Sequence to fold (155 residues):
Amino acid sequence: MAKAPSVAIVLGSKTDEGHLKATTDLLDRFQIEWELKVISAHRQPEQLHEYVRAADAGGTQVFIAAAGLSAALPGVIGSLSQKPVIGLPVPGGALQGVDALLSMVQMPGGIPVATVGVGSNGSKNAAILAAQIVALGDAKVAERLRAYREELRAG
Ligand code: RP5
Fold:
């Protein structure tokens, strides 16, 4: 079985990619292995299924799923894996991301999506939340998060 990175980022569309720069920059800062795939829940359901199962089995600890509009992606990933799923609602469309935000945060009880905000703060927080999950089992990542908070405190 192929080893998978700690954090698997899945985007619903290539057009979502620009919103992930802050996320991947922070994951790099925390020295967390990640990979990014574009797989649509509604256009490529079989491919998504295969990818999530392989990442889960390969050791991925947390998924970040970014999507816009009705944003089914993170909920579907949550249905396929018991690993935590962070949902990043992508702004755009007629409702500017509010549709994606509500879709992710309003998952029916049983399959949660840990939803961060729309926009650049959400992009950052997706990485920090993922790092906090990884840090539960990795003291080096915990120390890097501590240093990051120290910088925030210093202003
Ligand atoms: C979602 O719908 C994607 O995440 C994207 O934000 C939005 C539009 O994607 P395209 O249909 O333009 O690729 O699936």
About this structure: The first strand starts at residue 7 and ends at 11. Helices lie at 21-29, 45-58, 73-80, 98-105, 120-135, 139-154. The radius of gyration is 15 Å. The mean pLDDT is 97.
